[in-house]
Amino acid sequence: MSVPLLEARALIKDYGAQRAVNGVSFTVAPGRCFGLLGPNGAGKTTTVEMLEGITAPSGGEILFRGAPVGRDYPEEIGLMFQSTALQDFLTVREALDTFGHLYRRRAAFDALVRRCALEEFLDQYANTLSGGQRQRVLLAIALVNRPALLFLDEPTTGLDPQARRRFWELIREIKAGGSTIVLTTHYLEEAHLLCDEIAIMDHGRIIAQGRPAALLADHFDESILILPPEQAPALARAGLAAQETLHGLEIATRAVNQTLRRLLEVDADLSGLRIRTATLEDLFLELTGRELRG
Predict the structure, then answer these.
(1) Domain of 257, in residue numbers
(2) Number of domains making up the chain
(3) Which pTM was predicted?
(4) Does residue 193 form part of some domain?
(5) What would the pLDDT profile of 149-205 be if each residue is shown by its tens digit?
(6) Residue 150 and residue 198 in one domain
């Protein structure tokens, strides 16, 4: 049986009387992408900070390659924070060189530039970069020491859809090259596309964990019918309950044909009908609730 690259054992983090993380345990196998999800205040950021060595646990243990993390652990990991300050008047080339000198082991410069697609703006100043370019530079900095384990903290926040998808491609290429990744994100589509396994946290605990497809199969055996909001009277006549969302009126049903017949019987307009299967967003909301959190 192979040894996990990273293992969290019953991690606890207290801030005074407040317990932010309460007994979190999981393993990350080599070459896999592990996603840590949760609403604001769930404890995922604190958990990742402990795994990164930024914050000391109040209890529990972190193992790297089967042994407690030691002095060399920072040399083995790469960190891409949600926000990292770059010197405005350093070029991308100079920034990579500066961060590279912090480590004993360094990636080959030209290979790193190609891997993160930095060629076109390598000699631009950091303060002239677009959001997508900046994130690719930060990814390159996280990879500058050829880490065995890469932490990505909400790496696509603030990017436009095109830049976000390009970044997903980069992460997939990095993972295909054998890298192990721990990803935190609020984009559920991102987690579904990139992660081999996810854990959903709430109130300091893991409340669901597994492969995305398996978790969805465990929690949902329904299809979702979506109708425009103006069809609410027809749904009431048909006696169908619906959840109002940004996408429209959503009806969860195990019997699609029967539900459609009921709608046709009450003369519902089905020209705007859409049908989808459950997503990680549905699972996330079912497990953590729909209320706003600070």
Answers:
(1) 221-277
(2) 2
(3) 0.85
(4) yes
(5) 999 999 998 888 888 998 999 999 999 988 999 999 988 889 999 999 999 999 999
(6) yes
3-state secondary structure the chain: CCCCCEEEEEEEEEECCEEEEEEEEEEECCCCEEEEECCCCCCHHHHHHHHCCCCCCCEEEEEECCEECCCCHHHHEEEECCCCCCCCCCEHHHHHHHHHCCCCCCCCHHHHHHHCCCHHHCCCEHHHCCHHHHHHHHHHHHCCCCCCEEEEECCCCCCCHHHHHHHHHHHHHHHHCCCEEEEECCCHHHHHHHCCEEEEEECCEEEEEECHHHHHHHHCCCEEEEECHHHHHHHHHHCCCCEEECCEEEEEECCHHHHHHHHHHCCCCCCCCEEEECCHHHHHHHHHCCCCCC
Residue that is last in its domain, among 173, 194, 217: 217
CATH number for the domain including 85? 3.40.50.300
| Amino acid, res. 137 | V
Q: What is the model's pLDDT at position 177?
A: 87
